[in-house]
Amino acid sequence: GAVVSQHPSRVICKSGTSVKIECRSLDFQATTMFWYRQFPKKSLMLMATSNEGSKATYEQGVEKDKFLINHASLTLSTLTVTSAHPEDSSFYICSAIWTSDGETQYFGPGTRLLVL
Amino acid sequence: GDSVTQMEGPVTLSEEACLTINCTYTATGYPSLFWYVQYPGEGLQLLLKATKADDKGSNKGFEATYRKETTSFHLEKGSVQVSDSAVYFCALSRNTNAGKSTFGDGTTLTVKP
Predict the structure, then answer these.
(1) Is B107 on the interface with A (CB under 8 A)?
(2) B97: confidence class by pLDDT, cuts 50, 70, 90
C-alpha cells in the first residue's frame, strides 16, 4: 500500500508554455501533499504544502503565481508551472502524507522537466 | 528551527563491507526520524523510521536507532550489495506540523563489486 504516482515522468516543453504535473495517491486518501524541487546532487527543497479543499501554503521565495497548486480531491494534487523558462528545468517530486500516522510521507517517482 | 546533518559523501564501499551513514538532528521535543533512499532517476522511498527514543527501525538489512541522548539516527548495514548504491536521506518530522519534514543533504553511496 501507500503508493503515490506522478504524471508525466518526463516532459520537455518550449519556453513560455505551461506544464501541469499530477500527483495521485493510489490506495489511500491524502488531505496533505507536498511539492518538492530537487536540483542535481542536492537535497529536496520544499516548495509548497497542498491541502485538499484549501489554498496551498508556499515556502518563502517560491512564487505562487508561477507554481500553481490545486488539490481538488483527496487523491489528486496538481502543480502547474506557468510560463516556464529554462531555469525552471528540474526534478519535481510530490509526496502524500500517510493519514494513519499523519507524518510518514510517501513519495512519487518524480517528474523531470526540461524547458528549452 | 529544526535541522538535520548528514555525513558528507560520496561513500564508496566494496560489496559485503559494513556501512554507517551518520545523521544527527537538532529539534525540540520528540520528532519522528526517517531514512529515505533514492535510486537514480527515481523519487524517494521510505527505508525505515523510528518514532520515539530507543526505537530501532529496520528494513532490507538496514537499521537505525533513535538516540535521544546523542540526537542521532545513524544508518547501518552489515553487508552492502551493489544494488544498495543510491542516495540516502535522513529526515525528521512532526505530527504537529502536518507532516512537514526537514531533510538532510543526502549521502551518495556507491558499492563496487
Answers:
(1) no
(2) low
